Amino acid sequence: MNRLAEPAAPTPFPTPWGALGLTRFPEDPRERLRAWDAADEYLLRHLAGEADSAGGRATALAGRAVTVLGDRWGALTTALATVPGPAAPPAAVTQISDSHLAQRATLANLARAGADPAAARLLTTRDTPPERIDVLLVRVPKSLALLEDQLHRLAPALHPETVVLGTGMVTEIHTSTLRLFERILGPTRTSLAVRKARLILCTPDRALDPGPNPWPHRYALPGDIGAVSGRTVTNHAGTFCADRLDIGTRFLLAHLPTAAPGARVVDLGCGNGVVGTAAALATPGAELLFVDESHQAVASAEETFRANLGPDARAEFRTADALADADVPAGSVDLVLNNPPFHSHQATTDATAWRMFTGARRALRPGGELWVVGNRHLDYHVKLRRLFGNCRTVAGNPKFVVLKAVKR
Question: Edge-to-edge strands of the sheet including 287-292?
């Protein structure tokens, strides 16, 4: 048998209560990145009271409501939801995540561990937070804005006895990270580093007044970018380039294709929805679909679109893995617009772009077009030629290229 065709082998995740086999989502037999890291392991060891540099003692979990914020692939949620009975499992485990992929991974890892599907409640960053949190575990996100927003949203659920623990790799925890905890929740300190991971230990202070949550953020777009010039864009916390128009999107807007009236257009990896909104403004009667794996991004795109085209304009907004689970029939789309990411957390990878390209090809009807903007050095034209059999460079500058591939 071709070994590349075999399912991905779960990577054993050592927890204080036994090893778990975990994978990222979607599973890929070629994947060499783990679904957990030393920061996840460090936090669980500290909770269990194993010796560490933070001087921790076992945190009582039995009967307590535990909330996990930002669990990347479900490692923390799965471990806590499968604590064996004698070790006194929590009364409830709630995961809050902005990532559709992270929650799909969590569901798969819970099933792999044999957990009851009801063992963890999965919420998005757009859902109403729990009313009471006894233990708050925070996997520090890449976006400080998302951390700020979520700490504001969760603070009312904390009480003086709430245990607040954050974790991340040393390169992910900065002075600004600690200041957010201290300003919004209460006094904060850090542990020494263990295997390049660090803990954040915070004591909630209910008398603290952190001020209002500054998110979402809105700003007016520049005046030289075509149909959306001067329009207002909405950015919920964590959305890519939330305080300005990124230069890649600006370059794509300068070369945006005009779709036929009534065309079905997908803004794939939509972020705040600027590209899809521009397409809708430039093509009256177009039917837009905005897709992103970030719940914050999809909410931003919907607000941006509705503010500029009104409540009755034809558009759908879906959180999905590229187009793989967006419920888009094959051969139903005329135009896909795409500015793909090339990072997954701290790792540089083209896996997301490849899934976007393959999903776009399936969704496009014959003659349909995929337009992509990307950094020149990423060589997306090679992948597009391999997949579509053609690729044309529409425009380029020293940093970016706009590429077009046509489904034959």
Answer: 315-319, 287-292, 264-268, 333-338, 364-375, 400-406, 392-396
Amino acid at 121: R
**Is the CB of residue 223 less than 8 Å from the CB of residue 370?**
no
The DSSP bridge partners found for residue 372 are 338, 403
pLDDT, mean of each 10-residue run, the chain (408 residues) = 48 92 87 91 93 66 93 96 80 95 96 90 98 97 96 97 97 97 98 96 95 96 93 96 90 94 96 97 94 98 97 94 92 97 60 93 97 94 96 96 97
Q: Which residue has the tokens 């597009």?
A: 384
Q: Give first-to-last CA distance, the chain, whole Å.
A: 33
Orientation angle between helical segments 274-282 and 295-309, nearest 10 degrees:
30
